[in-house]
Amino acid sequence: MQAKNLDKSTGQGQQVPLGKGLFIELIGGMGKKATKALLYRQGVFIKDVDMLDRVALRLFVVEAVDLGARKSYLAKAVGISRQSIDNHLEVRRVFGIAGLMGGYRSEESKDVRKQRKINKEGQFVGNKVRKVEELRAREREEKEQQQATITFEYPEGKTAEVKEHPFAEEHNWEKSRYAGTLLYLITLIYQWGWLRLIMSYFGDSYRIFMVFILMAADDIRSIEQLKHVHTREAGVVLGIKRIPSKPVVWEWFYKAAEMQVSGSLLKSYFRRQICCGLVGIGVWFTDGHLLPYTGKHRVHSAYNTQRRMPVPGRTGMVTCDGSGRIVDFEIQEGKGDLRAFVSDLGGKWLEDVPQKPVQVFDREGSGNDFFIGLVGDGTPFVTWEKNADAKKLEAIEDSRFTIEFELNGKSYGAFEGEKVLEEDATGRKIPLRRIYLWNKTSRRRTSGLACSETMTTEECARAILSRWGASENTFKHLNDRHPWHYHPGFKLVESERQDIANPQVKKIETIIAGIKKGLSSLYRKLAKAKEVVNADGAPRFNSARERLQQTISEQEAQLAKLNEEKKELAPRVNVADLEDYKSFKRIDNEGKYLFDFATISVWNARKQMVDWLCPHFTEKDELVDLFYAITNCHGWVKSTKTEITVRLEPLPQPRHRLAQEQLCRKLTSLMARTPKGKRFSVEVGDAPA
Q: Which of 129, 236, 309, 356 is deepest in the core (most CB within 10 A)?
């Protein structure tokens, strides 16, 4: 803070900036030398004060802080301590404005006893600062007593009492090869209120989620693999003393799953992310992903994109923002319905966002009726154009691609056109933006469709390219880093969807396909057959051409009959009405939702910590690997009555260690605390003595 000799008011004093557009002009010198002070905001005079009048100065100080003045700047300017400003604010909070005026002597009466007698009634007698300190201590003591047995409330009005708090155990330094996992917990506790959230829903069953955090952070692919984990070393990091045997872990899991509150839990978690700005709300990317099932029961089939065939399983619909943080997800039975998920997503969080995010999805969502529905709902979107004419795209002149940009080391060209959709019911014309794309590196062209008034042509093109192919970094890599496909505790129930494609229709379609194939061959033969006539010019009886025509007529009659039979059959039937058909089972997703909740929590926390690490490490290609090297570090954990300290082993390379230390300082500065008030601290160093 530097005083400036500016001439905006009287020109007689020094002007000191206080922040928030405020500055103070001091007449007579800085600090206690000043005789008068004038407060300005954006050059406009607000008020002045006689610096020799101590009561007026107190009122002036608290009003300046209310207007946004920085306490440290203000304290230096008026010549008092920062603690004095805090004391003035606390005195006003407890005793009101009158508390700041205690001991005031007016200029009218020099008799101190008389003045005290006048002001004594209704005023606090004694040292108000000491009284405020006593009140603060009493408030802290009451808070600690309330936290001795914390009871949380469900949104539905239920309660969950917590008897064993996380990190309640006190211990000296203990070595743990899982020390880096604690970095995820600190981030989740600070930004997401993660521990309080799960404890409010599950009470003492929160412990299974601590195990899930360890599995997601250390790539432990199943509960069965916990037998390889050092139980005490993991327990001190997770704050649950030690990880118990597998039967006890399964007991924890089933106890949490039986509560059936995953829907409310995820809704609270996703809403907090959106409302607190932890995920972007400008552009959302949605895609479906296969969750395969290899059991013996009959379940509906999803679609395997790599194998290009249906396989038993479910579809996980995942939505992430532009940075790859997961915003929302849903598990759907069988192939799933991307269109319905995207349509519902537009209005699901409408109360929590200022405007609907732009929905970006792949060709699976293409369809004129779907596009018209999104336009009618006011949902902006960007997507690929399905079945684009490759020949027409190649015929476009290169000079029309006037917008040029680069993405992931590849050069692109783009320009914008228009595609008009016609609504079937009303015949109304609905124009969409058509984005033409040219990948100059691979020499391929494609096009996309957009309905957004806020995005430019280049932004639409980047949105189309940002989550598929070489540019994808969320959907492909999530399962590589975390056990995304793992489903603990399969439970199957009777599915509500027991309909299948009518097997009689399939049988008739097979016969129809055979007849059509035979007719195509007969038509070719008929075209080549010559017409043979008798001497009188009449067609010869039973000639090859006549026989072909007769066969074609019979086949066409049979084809028409089969088509009529097909129309009379129902396209889908219930398996209960058929013989030798097993009913469909539905996989209960409660346990999967609970595990995926922990997985996406770790994923989003990882994204946040990589952003914190980024300013301290210039090699962007190595940034993610460096982060995983930090979180995989061994270390030591210490728990006292007021603090949990984790010390990580230093990385060998100096530049890596410097970034490691900066990330640890950042996490320590967050002042994250357990529900019982213990503070987290992270450091880098050698083994403690």
A: 236
